[in-house]
């Protein structure tokens, strides 16, 4: 049975470009669908957050204001309610060890930009996982978590790797626009990542060896399925 660490942001707010504070959290679909696909295939999923705090769901991810249909919101909410025990008592991220897992997956919501992007413990974990060839996956704004990883005297761990993330175009169309703390796609390019994006709001997954990234919430299912396929390919 594959064992997968799902790293979820613990942030419930973020400072915007204009200095105001904006409520945030994880995106319901990205956690719910990813967890459902992985556990449905028999994988064990362990949820971890910085400090072991209970993560907060972004209210917009369960609301038509966030572009989420009412029926989808009900389904995601019901699934999250079904794993409430796991969300209530996550593993403290600093206690996680890459060797204990076959894969690491980071779902999004804007919240990872507020904490995971600069989390030293996560940076070490991702670096160790990548160096050992374990599957490293991130989705939407969860790709910001990769920014936490630097090799000593060598810079950004994922420089030169091909990946995708929530795009600058999507941020302008349906995100925070120019009030975003930074445009994730642009920041990743600045750090040396090679970005390959699909059309805005399309289900787009990019795989570069053991690194798997999904562009947006619409890519949640395909990203989780790509993780499962990669794990199967690795075990033959």
TrEMBL record:
Question: A single Pfam family, by name?
Answer: DJ-1_PfpI
InterPro entries documented for this protein: Class_I_gatase-like, DJ-1/PfpI, Prot/Nucl_acid_deglycase
Keyword Transmembrane helix assigned: no
The residues covered by the DJ-1/PfpI domain are 30-229
Give any GO molecular function from the UniProt entry. transferase activity
Q: What GO biological process terms does the UniProt entry carry, in alphabetical order?
A: methylglyoxal catabolic process to D-lactate via S-lactoyl-glutathione
Query: Is Aminoacyl-tRNA synthetase a UniProt keyword of this protein?
Result: no
Keywords from UniProt, A to Z, are: Glutamine amidotransferase, Lyase, Stress response, Transferase
Q: Which GO terms describe its cellular component?
A: cytoplasm
- Give the matching Gene3D superfamilies: 3.40.50.880
Q: Which family does it belong to?
A: Belongs to the peptidase C56 family. HSP31-like subfamily.
**PANTHER family, A to Z:** GLUTATHIONE-INDEPENDENT GLYOXALASE HSP31-RELATED (PTHR48094:SF11), PROTEIN/NUCLEIC ACID DEGLYCASE DJ-1-RELATED (PTHR48094)
| Protein name as it appears in the record | Type 1 glutamine amidotransferase domain-containing protein
Question: What organism is listed for this UniProt entry?
Answer: Streptomyces cadmiisoli
Q: What does the organism's lineage look like at the top?
A: Bacteria, Bacillati, Actinomycetota, Actinomycetes, Kitasatosporales
């Amino acid at each position: 049975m594959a064992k997968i660490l799902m790293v979820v942001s613990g942030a419930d707010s973020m400072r915007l470009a204009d200095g105001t504070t904006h409520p945030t959290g994880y995106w319901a679909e990205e956690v719910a669908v990813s967890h459902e696909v992985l556990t449905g295939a028999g994988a064990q999923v362990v949820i971890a957050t910085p400090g072991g705090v209970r993560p907060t769901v972004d209210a917009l991810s369960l609301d038509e204001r966030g572009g989420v249909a009412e029926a989808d919101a009900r389904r995601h909410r019901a699934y999250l309610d079904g794993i409430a025990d796991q969300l209530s008592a996550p593993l403290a991220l600093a206690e996680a060890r890459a060797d204990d897992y076959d894969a690491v997956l980071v779902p999004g919501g804007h919240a990872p930009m507020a904490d995971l992007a600069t989390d030293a413990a996560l940076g070490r974990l991702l670096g160790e996982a990548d160096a050992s060839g374990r599957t490293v996956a991130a989705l939407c704004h969860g790709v910001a978590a990769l920014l936490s990883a630097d090799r000593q005297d060598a810079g950004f761990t994922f420089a030169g790797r091909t990946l995708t993330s929530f795009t600058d175009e999507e941020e302008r169309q349906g995100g925070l626009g120019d009030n975003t703390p930074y445009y994730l796609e642009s920041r990743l390019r600045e750090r040396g990542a090679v970005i390959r994006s699909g059309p805005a709001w399309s289900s787009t997954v990019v795989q570069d060896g053991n690194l798997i990234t999904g562009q947006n919430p619409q890519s949640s299912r395909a990203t989780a399925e790509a993780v499962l396929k990669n794990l199967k390919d690795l075990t033959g």
